[in-house]
Amino acid sequence: ATGAHAAFSWGAWALWLKLLTVGATLALTAVLVVLTLSLYQRCDQYAPTAVHFTVANFFAAAYIVADTTVIIAMTLARDDVVQTAYRAAIAVLPLALAAYFFVYRCMRQDGWPSRRLLVACYSLGLGGAILPWVDSPYLIVASEQLTITRANIFLDYGAGAGPFFAACLAVFAVVSYRILRHAPARKSTGISLVTGFGFA
After folding, report:
1. Given Cys at both, which of 27, 91, 94, 132 links 128, Cβ 3.0 to 4.6 Å?
2. Are the beta carbons of 83 and 57 closer than 8 angstroms?
3. In whole angstroms, how far apart are CA 39 and each of 47, 51, 114, 129, 195?
């Protein structure tokens, strides 16, 4: 009984923190949208960077909402909702990374990236976003089977899950490192702060 109570207590705290994070992220996203629209309307030189950063933050917010939905659905024993929310959380990762990559590109070249590059990168991100919805032992999700522990729940991952998450982490780390290295050249503490926010 003590172990069950501890698990419930931990789950309640985790859910509370996730709900708090959802609210904070949505509020910050709203602020970013307003600031980005202002920069875009004024044709500011930082508008391209702001647009892609806002898009990346939007996908990050979508991830947090989906991840929180997983916990809520698990509490309500809604396995069907868990499946959908879990896959949605994984699906937005490559899209967020595509947008984050363009944050760096816009910073480096002081303007909008080429349409060809935009289409290519976002198409790659969209392709990665489709993968979690396909059940295959060779891809990210092997089947609809769920593994449930006292305080968490996991999908039945396929052989491609490890390389997929490793690739996402590697892209995020490399792009963030380059943004931070590029910030001093631009003499912008704002860029460093924005990247720190991106990490968070």
Report:
1. 94
2. no
3. 5, 9, 20, 29, 18
